[in-house]
Task: structure prediction
Amino acid sequence: MPSRHSIAASPVKGGAAPAGSPPAGRAPEEERRRAKLSRRWQRDLRWSPYAFVAPFFALFIAFGLFPLIYTGWASLHTVELTAPTDMEWAGLKNYVRIFDDEFFWNAARNTLIIGVISTVPQLAMAMGIAHLLNYKLRGSTFWRVAMLAPYATSVAAAALVFVLLFGRDYGMINWALGFVGLDAIDWQNDSWASKLAVSTIVIWRWTGYNALIYLAAMQAIPHDLYESAALDGASRWRQFFHVTLPSLRPTILFTVVVSTIGATQIFGEPLLFDASKGASGGGTHQFQTLGLYLYEQGWINQHLGRASAIAWSMFAILILIGLVNSVISRRLRASS
Amino acid sequence: MRAIRTARRRAVVLATVAALGAGLLAGCADDGKDEESTGSGDAKGKTTITVGLFGTFGFKEAGLYDEYMKLNPKINIKETVIERNENYYPALVNHLTTGSGLQDIQGVEVGNIAEITATQGDKLVDLSKFGKKSDFLGWKWEQGTTKDGKTVGLGTDVGPMAICYRKDLFEKAGLPTDREELAKLWEGDWAKFVEVGRDFKKGAPKDVTFMDSPGGLLNAILSSETEKFYNAEGEVIYKTNPAVKDAFDLTANAAEEGLIGKQVQFQPAWDTTIANGKFAAMSCPPWMLGYIKGKSKPEAAGKWDVAKAPKSGNWGGSFLSVPKAGKNTDEAAKLAAWLTAPEQQAKLFAVQGSFPSAPSTYEGDKVLNAKNDMTGDAPIGQIFADAAKSSPVQVIGPKDQIIQQGLTDNGVILVTQGKSAADAWSNAVKTIDNNLEK
Result:
C-alpha cells in the first residue's frame, strides 16, 4: 500500500500530472482546468483502489469477520439455539470441558485417521495419474475432463451412491466380496471399515482435481531437463524421481496444505454416510469427525455455546497444523 | 468512433455493476419487506395467509385451501413446504427466536411440540379461543398447550399404533393368523408379544425375523408408557425410570435372540426387507401402511393384517401454530382452526390417510369403513380409532427426540452388531448425557 500511495502523491510534489505536464505559455484558464483535472486524477488514483476492494471487505466483514468474532463471544457463554439472545456468562467453561470431552477427542482422532488415509493415497494416486496423462495420449482432453468429473459431482450425490455401494445387506461391494468367497463387511458399523469407506468417497472426489494440478505443473517443467537426463542414460523411472518430483516440490506443498485443510473440515461425507441419518457419525461415533461433532452440538443438540467453543478449538488446531507445515516446508527448502 | 465505443463499454460495465449490486442488496434485504407486500393485501384487497409446512400435510391435495378460499373470498392462501422436518425445524426455531422470516401459520411435528410449548410459547398466539377443546383427543390438546395453559398448537393428525403382520408368514411359522386371537395372545404386555416372537422363530422360514428393527420395537413400547423420559415436573428421568430400562432390555434381549432384524428404520436396506418379506410383524401407525405399500411388491397386497397392539401408543402427528410476529394473526388463527376442525380432518383422512385427532370423526363413515390395499378387508379404521382412544396421556419433554435417538441409534441397534445389552445401554447413556448437557 505505501508504494501505491507514493505514486499517487507524486504528481503534486513533482508537479507532473500523469496526463502529461502542461507546456508553458497556455492561457491561465486552461491552466486552471488542467489543475482541476489533475486534482481529480489524483483523488481518483488515491481512493479508487479502496472503492474497488470495498465490496469484498464489506462482505467479508458481514459474513466472515463478524461471525468469527461473534462465535468467539458466544463460546464464552451458555447459549441455546432456542433462545440465542439469552446468553449466560460461562467464562472458559466450554473450553475447559473440551479437555475431558471424550467425544471431542474421539472426533479429533477420527478426523486425523480419515485425513491421513484419504489424503496420502489421494495425492500419491494423483501424482501417478498426472504422470500418465503427461504422456502423449489419444483424446487427452477427454481423459482430463473425465478426471475432473468426480470433482464436479456434488458431495450429496456421491455420498448417496457410495452408501448404496457400501451397504451391508444389499451393497454391491459386499456382493462382489461374496463372489470371491469373502465374508460380508459391515461398512457402516465397523470402526476401521467405516473410516475406510468415508475416505474412499473423499479420495474418489479429489484425486482427479489434484492430478490436474500436478499435470499443469509437470507441463511447465522444461523439456531439456528430460532430454539431458535421457542423454545421461536415465530411465523413465529415474527421470520421474530425479527430474519431475523435485520440480514439483512447491506444487506438492500446495496440494498438501489444501488437502490438510480440507481433511480437517471434512463434514458432508461422514454426515451422509450415517445409517441413522443423525450427526453422531455411527452408533459408537466411529466415523464422527470434528466438523460433524460441531454440527451435532450446535444444530441437533442446540448448544450454541459449546458448538462455538468447538469451532474455535478447531481453528486453533488448524493454525497449529499450519505452523508445523510452514516449519517443515522451510526446513525442506533449506535442505535443498 | 473509439470514444463512442469506450463510452458504450463503460455504460455496459456500469449497468452490470449496478445490476450486480442491486442483486446483492436484494439478497441482503430482510424478509420482513416481502411479508409486508403480501401480508397487507394485494390490489384486489385480498388478505394473503402464508402457510409453512414440512413433509406432506395434504391440505392442498385434499382441496381444503380451495374450499376455504371459496368460503372466504377475501382470503388468499399460499403454502411453502420443506420436505424434511430435520431441515424445517431448526429454521423454524431460528425464525421464531428472531421474529422474522415466519409464515402466518407454521406446522410443528409432535417430536418438537414439547420444546416449542416450553421455549417458544410466548411467541405464539393462544389458539384456545379459536379451536374447540372438546373436538380433540384429550392428550392431543394437552400436547399443544403450554404450562401456563395457552394452547399454541392445534392438532392435525395422530399416529395410533397397532401391529401390522404378514398373514402368510405367521401361517408358515404355525402361528394363528386371526387378528382377534393374536391380540388376545399378547394383550396387555409387550413381553408376551416377544414371547409370540419366540414361537414364531421356532417355525419360521430361514432369514425371516419376527420384527423389522430394534428401533421399531423400542419405539412401540416407549410410546405406550405414560412416563418415559421426563416426569410430570419436567425433570429428565430416562436413566432411572424402570419403564425405560425394561423396554430397552426387552428389546435388546429380543435382538440378541435373533427375533428382530438388524435394520435401521427408513434406510434403503430396511425398505428392501419390506419388499422381500424378511420380517413378519411391525408396530405401525396408519401412515405406515402407505409406506409399506410404497415399498412392497404388488403381490404383497392383501397379505398384511392389523391387530391390536399389546398396549396402545402414538407415533407421529402434527400441530398447526400461529406466530405472533405474523401480519394477519387473527385470520391465520381462524384458518388454522378451520383446517383442524373435525369435518376437515375427516376429509383429509379420506384423501391422505392422515388419521384424525378429532374423535367425533371415528363414528363417521369415512373412518369406520376405511380399508387399505395392503390389509385387504381388515377394519383398520376401527382398530386405529380404538388405539387412539386408549393411548395414554403421555408426559412429553423438549429433548424426547434426542433421548430416543440415543437409545435407538447409539443403543439397541448395537446389540445387533454383537455388543452386549449392558454395553449398548452405557454407550447410549454416555451419548445422551453429553448431548443434553448445555
About this structure: Chain B touches chain A through 36 residues (CB under 8 Å).
